[in-house]
Every structure is written in structure tokens, then in C-alpha cells.
Amino acid sequence: MAETKQNDEITFDTSKWYAIFSGWLIFPAIFTLLVFIGAIIMVIFVDPSELSGFDLVIYYFDFFTIPYLIITYILWFRRKRIFPYFMIIYFLCNAGLNVAFYISGFQLDPLNLIMSIVWIIYFIRSKRVKATFTK
Predict the structure, then answer these.
(1) How confident is the model at residue 1 (pLDDT cuts 50, 70, 90)?
(2) Whole-model pTM?
(3) In this predicted structure, which of 13-17, 36-40, 98-102, 106-110 has the lowest mean pLDDT?
(4) What is the dihedral of CA 36, 124, 86, 110, to 10 degrees?
(5) CB 132 within 8 A of CB 123
(6) What's the rounded Cα separation, in Å, for the pair 105 and 107?
(7) Cβ atoms within 10 A of the Cβ of 34, count?
(8) Run of H or E residues at 5
(9) How many CA atoms lie within 13 A of 96 on its CB side?
(10) What is the dihedral of CA 93, 97, 110, 39, to 10 degrees?
């Protein structure tokens, strides 16, 4: 991805098909793909009637994650301007679930919580994201 500096502004070449995965955008793409695959496995192979407590919450979170991520991927590949908001909402829910675990007495996953916060800030402030998702 060629970056050029003009008048103290960085511009990004977003004309290539792979611009939606360029730079730091590859990391949330990989993360959400792994979560998507895990959610499909969870929904297919786990019987919700055998779950209780937070295991059931995780199941339903995965159940609603699947269509949400499908919509997000469609927005991602079409470079829609609303896509960053979908990612921000996803990472807010992910962080909220992590905090809810901690409040309920489970061990906190600080890496997951910190990465969710980092990605929220990234999708809000990134010039690459603003340049790439413009339709």
C-alpha cells in the first residue's frame, strides 16, 4: 500500500482490491474470522438446553454474532462508510461481555479487553479506515 505525504497529510492508495485488509485492518479481519468460525462451531455442536449461566450467555452471543458478522463482512467487502460503526459496536459488545464475566466472578481476560478498546479507538481515529470505507 503506497503512502504518500502531501501538504503534511498522509494519503492512502485504496484503489486495490486488498485495500480493505491493508495495514492494521488485517488484524481485526483475522480476529473476527476466527470468532466467526468458533461461533459456527459452538452453535452447530452445542445443545443450548444443556447449558446454564454464562455458558448460555456465550452461546446466545455466538448465535447472534454469526448474522451480525455476515452483515459486517458484506459491508467490509463493499467498503461501506457505515462499516467502522459496525466494528465499533462489535468490539463494544465483546468488551462488555468480558467485563460481565469479571463482574460475575470469572477471571478477566485483560488481553481481550485491551484489544477491544484498542480496535474501538483505531476504527474511530484511523485515517486509513476513513480513506478506505467511503461508499
Answers:
(1) very low
(2) 0.82
(3) 13-17
(4) 40
(5) no
(6) 7
(7) 10
(8) strand 3-6
(9) 8
(10) -80
